[in-house]
């Protein structure tokens, strides 16, 4: 049996789980019930389950193949965002102020579907498949923490994951090599001035004026220190200063983010990287392209430009070969057109079981080709 033969069979299963998780979102480092639900479902399939009992969030499932061999991990992130949902759908979030506004509900459903498929094809698995359900991706620290859970990361030889993507038409997949998602660093700048009367600015050091100048001059960090052929973004997302209309504030704080693809660009911008760039290695991407074509057809393989959002899957790729896929979910017919992190974000979840098949087949083929 091939994974493609199971797409229709598990379409409803994967779609139903995506909508269940959408109704029951939990924020980063709070995914307690989500973890319990995942563990229960995997155990009902006969998957070996290891929950991070110390933290109560996150788990590893292990599927042992019919033959001995190497090990590969398939990963899904499980956290939601502090966003109040504005969609009018019957699977709308039931938790006030919390929403799966980035698609991690889809990622969990995809991996559960892949697990079902793999369990029905254990005779084709020449090794072990680890199912990594990772918490706290949105913090940027979820992956580094999850690597420390048990010895699963040491035991796997490769890793595969993906992200549903609203800018890609539903049913398409992008798996090309090279940089796919940017490094992401958080920056905080504190300004110390001198408070004074609004009518006597010459006797004060205006923290708002200084902060404003910093915002404008930060743009030259990119334009005068980075090659015009490279992609770097510096964004200030918040400024906090002052509380009265007639008082010159003596303090201000700025918060923002820096995004880039080339780790060497770090020297021009910040001293530490919060999340490194996500870079697919050529061999893994080549295999992923073959798997997409073989499983879904050549017309479902799409090319897509790299994007600036960060993804902590990048931490896994620091030491293991792997591929990170983009999974198209855009469909205007179901109002799946709003950006990630938007309160109207939605997806065409009828295509998710096709992604499950690609996950499953990638694991099978990687193990077969790396005996």
Structural class of the helix and strand makeup?
alpha+beta
**Which whole number gives the mean pLDDT?**
91
* Proportion of helical residues: 25-40%
Tell me what portion of residues adopts beta-strand conformation: 25-35%
Please count the beta strands (DSSP E, at least 2 residues each).
14
Uncertain regions spanning at least 5 consecutive residues: none
Largest sheet: 7 strands, mixed
Report the total helices.
9
Using only C-alpha atoms, the radius of gyration works out to 23 Å
Kindly report how far apart the N and C termini lie. 21 Å
Oligomer: single chain
- Order of strands, widest sheet: 1-2-4-3-5-14-6
* Helix and strand run: HHEEEHEHHEEEEEHEEEHEHEH
Described by the principal axes of the CA atoms, the overall outline is elongated
Walk me through the structure.
The protein has nine helices and 14 strands. It has helices spanning about 10-25, 30-45, 105-120, 140-145, 150-155, 205-225, 265-270, 280-295, 350-370, and strands at about 50, 60-65, 65-75, 125-135, 160-170, 175, 180, 185-190, 195, 230-240, 245-250, 250-260, 280, 320-330. The chain has a seven-stranded mixed β-sheet. α3 (about 105-120) links the parallel β3 and β4. α1 (about 10-25) packs across α9.
In short:
This protein is an alpha+beta fold and 371 residues long.
How is the secondary structure organized here?
Elements: H1 11-23, H2 32-45, E1 48-51, E2 59-64, E3 67-77, H3 104-119, E4 126-134, H4 142-147, H5 152-155, E5 158-169, E6 173-174, E7 178-181, E8 183-192, E9 196-197, H6 207-223, E10 232-240, E11 247-248, E12 251-260, H7 266-269, E13 278-280, H8 282-296, E14 322-330, H9 352-369
Parallel strand pairs: 3-4, 3-5, 5-14
Antiparallel strand pairs: 1-2, 2-4, 6-14, 7-13, 8-12, 9-11, 10-12
Helix pairs in contact: 1-3, 1-9, 2-3, 3-9, 8-9
């Amino acid at each position: 049996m091939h994974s493609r033969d199971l797409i229709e069979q598990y379409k409803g299963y994967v779609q139903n789980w995506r909508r269940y998780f959408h109704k029951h979102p939990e924020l980063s480092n709070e995914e307690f019930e989500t973890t319990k639900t995942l563990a229960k479902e995997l155990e009902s399939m006969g998957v070996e389950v290891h929950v991070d009992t110390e933290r109560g969030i996150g788990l590893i499932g292990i599927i042992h193949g019919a033959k001995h061999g190497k090990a590969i991990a398939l990963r899904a992130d499980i956290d939601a965002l502090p966003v109040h949902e504005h969609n009018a759908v019957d699977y709308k979030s039931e938790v006030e102020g919390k929403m799966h506004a980035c698609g991690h509900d889809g990622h969990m459903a995809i991996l559960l579907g892949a697990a079902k498929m793999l369990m029905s094809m254990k005779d084709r698995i020449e090794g072990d498949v680890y199912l990594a359900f990772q918490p706290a991706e949105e913090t940027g620290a979820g992956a580094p923490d999850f690597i420390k859970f048990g010895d699963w990361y040491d035991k796997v030889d490769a890793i595969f994951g993906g992200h549903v993507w609203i800018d890609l038409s539903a049913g398409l997949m992008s798996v090309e090599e090279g940089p796919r998602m940017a490094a992401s660093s958080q920056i905080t700048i504190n300004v110390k001035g001198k408070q004074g009367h609004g009518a006597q600015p010459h006797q004060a050091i205006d923290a708002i004026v200084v902060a404003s100048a910093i915002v404008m001059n930060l743009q030259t960090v990119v334009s005068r220190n980075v090659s015009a052929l490279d992609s770097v973004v510096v964004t200030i997302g918040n400024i906090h200063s002052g509380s009265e209309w007639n008082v010159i504030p003596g303090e201000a704080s700025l918060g923002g983010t820096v995004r880039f693809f080339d780790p060497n660009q770090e020297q021009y911008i910040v001293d530490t990287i919060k999340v490194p760039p996500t870079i697919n290695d050529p061999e893994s991407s080549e295999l992923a392209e073959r798997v997409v074509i073989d499983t879904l057809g050549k017309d479902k393989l799409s090319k897509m430009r790299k994007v600036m959002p960060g993804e902590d899957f990048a931490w896994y790729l620091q030491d293991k070969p792997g591929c990170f896929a983009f999974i198209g979910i855009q469909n205007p017919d179901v109002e799946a057109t709003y950006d990630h992190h938007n309160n109207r974000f939605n997806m065409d979840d009828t295509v998710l079981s096709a992604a499950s098949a690609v996950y499953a087949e990638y694991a099978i083929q990687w193990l077969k080709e790396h005996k």
